[in-house]
Please model this.
Amino acid sequence: MTTESPTDEWLAFPKTDRSRIRREPHLGSYLHSDVYSVVDASPLCHVGYVIDGQPFVTPTMHWRKGNRLYWHGSIGSRFLRQVDGARVCITCSLVDGYVLARSALNHAVNYRSAMMFGVAHVVEGLEETERALRDFMDGLFPERWDSLRPVQEKELKATSVLWMEIEEATVKSRSGDPSDADEAHVPVWAGVIPMETVLAGSRTAPEVPESIGLPGPLAGLIASGRLR
Amino acid sequence: MTTESPTDEWLAFPKTDRSRIRREPHLGSYLHSDVYSVVDASPLCHVGYVIDGQPFVTPTMHWRKGNRLYWHGSIGSRFLRQVDGARVCITCSLVDGYVLARSALNHAVNYRSAMMFGVAHVVEGLEETERALRDFMDGLFPERWDSLRPVQEKELKATSVLWMEIEEATVKSRSGDPSDADEAHVPVWAGVIPMETVLAGSRTAPEVPESIGLPGPLAGLIASGRLR
Model:
């Protein structure tokens, strides 16, 4: 019996007919770490699902715990009433800039995008639902949960948390300059116009007493340059 | 025969079983102008489609001409080989900030999102394809097309442009402060952390001659605060 050491192979999602990258595979990755890094940097995801053959794409916030992706919504929504046990595709995308080249079809976008496949499940039980929501809050706004008015049972009953195990996933990304430096004789400007998304300060609600300032962890998040 | 003057009623997409907003309908709109304004402000969209019952969600750039939405891709992609004539759902989403309330489930996101339904078609013919790509470029980067190296036939043959008539569409959005001012007695900070996406200057590709500066329309776009 031999013991193999883990390799990247062990930490990658499988290439299947569904997830295999057809177009520009050199821009792609199946590594867990690459997928998670896009997921964790994205403020929202787009959940794709099918009802009676019709595709729907719903934006929502998400959070991740290990290889599970979580999201939530009202129990009244179209999506949540029909999606338990359904196949979903969840995509997180970040745009990093426009890439302007010397010819129209060499123009591009710098971006990072993760496409993930799995089966949606509803978190069962009020306690488990509350624990999942706490994970969500703790990930976004550390130390905040315990400072809030406690969650009420009727609020939990009106909320569904969904999760899926990430079965297959791919990341595609592009960065850097235009790819047609060999056409530099064309007398036109070429380069990158970076696009940046930032948390831009804070705006205290008018009814908050003056004695209550912005908590340190929130100030830290805003100063960090991260979005979450 | 009477002539009725147009009203908002005439300029709204129909409410159908597919598009009717179930959750928080007061946050929603079916007006053409509201849908178009989110579409035109979004740097990218997410296209949802179904292959053998499996949903896929692909991010891509889009452009709009009247009530038609356009997007493009390589003829080699999974999507484009199968999507002609297929039902798609295209969603554009912009996040404007985190909304922090006094209780966990009153936390929210300020956002704008348009969900649109239609049938995908491929633009037929090289001339028509080139014209559509020119519309795309003209919308993003005015005056740029004529300064570029002309598009080659082989490039056009490797590119597909898709379009759909927007048959049904809804916009949902939220803005402003947390909704639980009545719980201001809870001693915790509440307010909004705005999220902003901006074009952050320009980075000239290293091989561009020093004599070629950033064109005026690009400088104008960057200075405008718009993303496109």
